[in-house]
Amino acid sequence: MCGIIGYTTKKDNAVNVTISGLKNLEYRGYDSSGIAFTTDRVNIIKSKGKIANLEEKLTQQDISSCCAIAHTRWATHGEPSEMNAHPHRVGSVTLVHNGIIENYSQLKEELISKGYEFKTQTDTEVATAYIDYCYKQTKDKLQAIIQACSKFRGSYAFNIIFDDELQTIYATRKDSPLVIGYSHEGNFAASDVSAILNYTKQYSLIDEGEFVKINKDVVTFYNTKLQIVQKEIKTATWDATQYQKNGYDHFMLKEIFEQPDVIQNIYNRYYDDCSYNDIDFTKFDKIHIVACGSAMHASLVGKYLLQTYAKIPVMVEIASEYRYAEELITPSTLLIVVSQSGETADTLAALRLAKEKGAYVVGIVNAVGSTISREVDKCIYTYAGPEIAVATTKGYTSQVAVLSTLAINAMKQNGLLDAENEKTLKNDLLNIKEKLEDVLKNKEKYLDIAKSIYNHEDLFFIGRGIDSSICMEGSLKLKEISYMHSESYSAGELKHGTISLIENGTPVIAIATNEELFEKTVSNVKETKARGAFSIFITTSAHQDYNFDEFADKVVIVPNTTEFTQAILVVTALQLIAYETAKLRKCDIDKPRNLAKSVTVE
Ligand code: M6R
User: Fold this and answer.
1) What is the position in ligand 1's atom list of the atom closest to the CA of 477?
2) Interval 88-138: pLDDT, tens
3) Which of 28, 191, 192, 294 to mutate to test the pocket of ligand 1 (most atoms within 8 A of CB)?
4) Before 559, cis peptide (omega within 30)?
5) Whose CA is nearest to atom 10 of ligand 1?
6) How many whole angstroms separate alpha carbon 46 and alpha carbon 440?
7) Strand, coil or helix: what is 528?
């Protein structure tokens, strides 16, 4: 969602630095952008569409400036337009915002009654006006921001400039991310460290209820009582090269190819990890796993493994729906929240609800230092490195990998892992890299399948058991980057209605990895084939000698592994089919329309 970067510096290059930082935030998703930079006054330039449009406008004037705040907007209130883009300016206040002020209509009425007028439909213009109004009352900038924020309901990260202090940025946040960066030449406030990595690796996290005054040579944190707060300065472990394509056509492809290392590292790091011992699975009567989108699909694989092998009942819930299961959350609930970004608003809300109810919360998170990672009782990092493509790939597979190690740990604790099985599992997990590399070698096969489906508008994924969860991820991947309509169905469920949609040539991708369910899935594929489907059959090397001719138009074979890693191999093949299909359809693969990488509003 929206991206923010502010920079105040001893030099006069604040515009170029913030624009370059803004480009590193593009991955978050946006539809317009804007910048405010100070000279002897505040200058505001905005543009609809890509940052390049904004840059084009900036070439038409002198942009020497030592202080700037810049923004990419993902529209929530008001259409994507130059007018609605940030920064917003009211009275003596100029501001950029990520989040939603939920009670903005009420505040707007209040401000209109005091003589304020509004040009846009945005909640952000109201927030700007409210801070201006408070500043007029208090004559103190920090007090004005604190007072205004106490009125705001919802989420926000702000960078603010006041007309009478043109080289200072004020910043604060609630439920939206914002970090402070420090360099020899100046200081930053940005949505995440990726925006500042070209200039510094030193940063601090802003906690909720903290207000920051940023000057070119000093940064001061305050609490709501205006007392100074000392902050830890951290060093980012990610570096700027991880934010480049490094020769790949797309970030998505690069991230798909990073999976062998990412997954192997997870298994090397966590297979015997003693830190899991502080999650006592025997203490809880149930496990809830809560997440959104692909993270929820990874959770379904985790549920299958925990239930099937560790014999623990698990409920997986979409984060935005979890509050409606409130009655089921008790102090003996183990909640596992899964999030690549660690900032997903719905997942954050779910974890807060569960903590209120006394549940113990474990987070499986990629982004180090993110809000979710800081609020859970225990965080297990996936350490997958930055994921830039909006469609998650290594984010998803790394979540499955961590969940599979959790399931193994739970099996051990429940006395369900004998020495022989343990040996098999260990061998499987610690040798995954080579098998994943084998899956990646099949480029021609994926392209061939893509060619056979890319000009269709509807497609079905079917599978049973763990394969049905894999189908959900394969289907989402295809939908989000190729804009093809696709549905994922449990193979046995199709005939209860949806099979009526199968007609001559309709592509059906069937996944059959589970030994015991194989024949049943084959029968379901035959049912679709009998109605004219074009079938693509994905299975493992355990079935490579099977006679597929009768029911499969295309076959993909991935290496056979245990169920703990099988999903990772199959999904990797599905990611590449989606990628090649989207490429043939000439879609914007890394930044699909309407989507945001980090969904920080509920
Ligand atoms: O950052 P998170 O893992 O919490 O994000 C959850 C979903 O928003 C995310 O997986 C989304 O579904 C992706 N676009 C899928 O590729």
Assistant:
1) 16
2) 999 999 999 999 999 999 999 999 999 999 999 899 999 999 999 999 999
3) 294
4) no
5) 294
6) 42
7) helix
Q: For domain 3-242, which architecture applies?
A: 4-Layer Sandwich (3.60)
- Cα distances from 475 to residues 255, 357, 557, in angstroms, run 19, 35, 19
**Alpha-carbon dihedral sign for residues 414, 420, 422, 428:** negative
Could you tell me the distance, in angstroms and rounded to a whole number, from the CA of residue 392 to the centre of ligand 1? 7
- At residue 275 the predicted structure's pLDDT band, cuts being 50, 70 and 90, is low
DSSP label at 213?
E
Q: How far is the CA of 597 from the centre of ligand 1 (A)?
A: 7
Report residue 272's pLDDT band, with 50, 70 and 90 as the boundaries.
confident
Backbone angles phi, psi at 562, to 5 degrees: -75, 170
Ligand 1, residues 27, 255, 292: which to mutate, most atoms within 8 A of Cβ? 292
Stretch 183-198: mean pLDDT:
94
- Cβ distance 225 to 372 under 8 Å? no
Give the DSSP letter of residue 232.
P
With CA atoms as reference, report the closest residue to 259 among 400, 428, 398, 399: 398
Question: CB within 8 A of 425, min separation 6: which ones?
Answer: 408, 417, 562, 564
Model confidence over 329-360: pLDDT tens digits?
Answer: 999 999 999 999 999 999 999 999 999 999 99
**2, 67, 134, 379: the active-site residue:** 2
Annotated catalytic residue 174: no
Between the CA of 106 and the centroid of ligand 1 the distance, in Å, is 32
The length of the chain in residues reads 602
8 A C-beta contact, residue 269 and residue 380: no
Fold agreement (245-430, 441-590):
yes
Catalytic residue check, 2: yes
Quick one: pLDDT at residue 326? Answer: 85
| Ligand 1 pocket mutation pick from 296, 341, 388, 488 by most atoms within 8 angstroms of CB | 341
pLDDT for residue 375:
94
Q: Which atom of ligand 1 is nearest to the CA of 340?
A: 3
CA 304 to centroid of ligand 1, rounded, Å: 20
User: What spacing in Å lies between the alpha carbon of 507 and ligand 1's midpoint?
Assistant: 26
The half-sphere exposure of 601 on its side-chain side, counting CA atoms within 13 A, is 20
Confidence of residue 277 (pLDDT cuts 50, 70, 90): low
If you average pLDDT over residues 240-261, what whole number do you get?
92
CATH 3.40.50.10490 fits 245-430, yes or no: yes
Provide the CATH topology of domain 441-590: Rossmann fold (3.40.50)
- Ligand 1: residues with CB < 6 A are 292-295, 339-341, 344, 347, 390-392, 395, 476, 480, 595, 599
User: Is the pLDDT at 1 greater than 90, yes or no?
Assistant: no
pLDDT average, residue stretch 60-78: 90
- Going from N- to C-terminal start, the domains of the chain cover 3-242, 245-430, 441-590
Structure tokens given for 577? 């089919």
